[in-house]
Design a protein that fits this description.
By secondary structure, this protein is α/β, with parallel strands linked by helices. The protein is 42% helix and 19% strand. It has two domains: 4-118 and 272-281, Alpha-Beta Complex (Aldehyde Oxidoreductase, domain 3), CATH 3.90.1170.20; 123-270, TIM Barrel. Hexamer formed by 3 homodimers.
Length: 285
């Protein structure tokens, strides 16, 4: 779950960046007593994410702002739908508008893209997961958006699980299969039994050394479909099987049909386009 403290840390930094000494335009032009009502409008279809982020952004400027969310995170919407209603002092709405929109557009774009990947693998045993290829400072929000789109989260940070990649083994000097197995076994001995260990390989001839060490997950990186099928046949039941690399909406279905259980997709967060949402102020009644 996305916690209030995670949201508030991002919102506070973003508001300070956007108006470090106040909103010069609104505070000069708009009377302090003027109130306004605005609607969050969808200018294209998608999957909503970031409702609580939107609300807490406006309330960070003024706790008295009224925010009514008309879509829950994970709900689909059509072009022209109203997703939220915001009412409060006009200066406050104008002060928070850009930050709120930036965040909810980004999150809804990620949720929408994730939903397309999830739909593409429907009926297979594969789950779509994100990676650490996130915007610095926005990881918690972006990973929440992945979940809103029906995807799953990989490890949150370097502190959460062990993932050994080729550069780890190169830095260690583990050149032979036996040395790789021994290094992984020593690693297991030093860790609590609750820690998950994943190892990335990019060639099938690396597989036996990794399986010998009884790791929890094997990542098959940039494998062809035939190599994935062979890897699945050799690993099945001995570890979780993850595929990574070369994954997009044109390839993900075929990758899923090889029998892998996890498909990690960096594009969910590093290449998602912000969805076109707008905040439309209603004329004064």
């Amino acid at each position: 779950m996305l916690s209030p403290s995670q949201i508030d840390a991002v919102v506070e930094a973003a508001l300070a960046e956007d108006a470090p000494w106040g909103d010069l335009s609104s505070e000069t032009l708009i009377p302090a007593e003027r109130r306004a009502r605005a609607l969050l409008a969808a200018r294209e279809p998608g999957v909503f994410a970031g409702g609580e982020v939107l609300a807490r952004t406006f309330r960070a400027v003024d706790p008295g702002v009224e925010v009514r969310l008309l879509r829950a995170d994970g709900e689909r919407f059509s072009r022209g739908d109203t997703l939220a209603q915001i009412e409060g002092p006009a200066r406050v709405l104008l002060r928070a508008e850009r930050v709120a929109l930036n965040l909810v557009q980004r999150m809804s774009g990620i949720a929408t893209l994730t939903s397309r990947f999830v739909e593409a693998v429907a009926g297979t045993s594969a789950r779509i997961v994100d990676t650490r290829k996130t915007t610095p400072g926005l990881r918690a929000l972006e990973r929440h958006a992945v979940r809103a789109g029906g995807g799953h989260n990989h490890r949150f940070s370097l502190s959460d699980a062990v993932m050994i990649k080729d550069n780890h083994l190169a830095a260690l000097g583990a050149a032979s299969p036996a040395a790789v197995t021994q290094a992984l076994e020593r690693l297991r001995e030093q860790l609590p039994h609750t820690v998950h260990i994943e190892v990335e390989i990019d060639r099938l001839d690396q597989l036996d050394a990794v399986l010998e060490a009884k790791v929890d997950t094997v990542m098959l990186d940039n494998f062809s479909l035939d190599e994935l099928r062979e890897g699945v046949a050799r690993i099945k039941g001995r570890a979780w099987i993850e595929a990574s690399g070369g994954v997009d909406l044109t390839t993900v279905r075929a990758i899923a049909e090889t029998g892998v259980e996890i498909i990690s997709v960096g594009a969910l967060t590093h290449s998602a386009r912000a969805l076109d949402l707008g905040l439309d102020f209603e004329p004064e009644r």
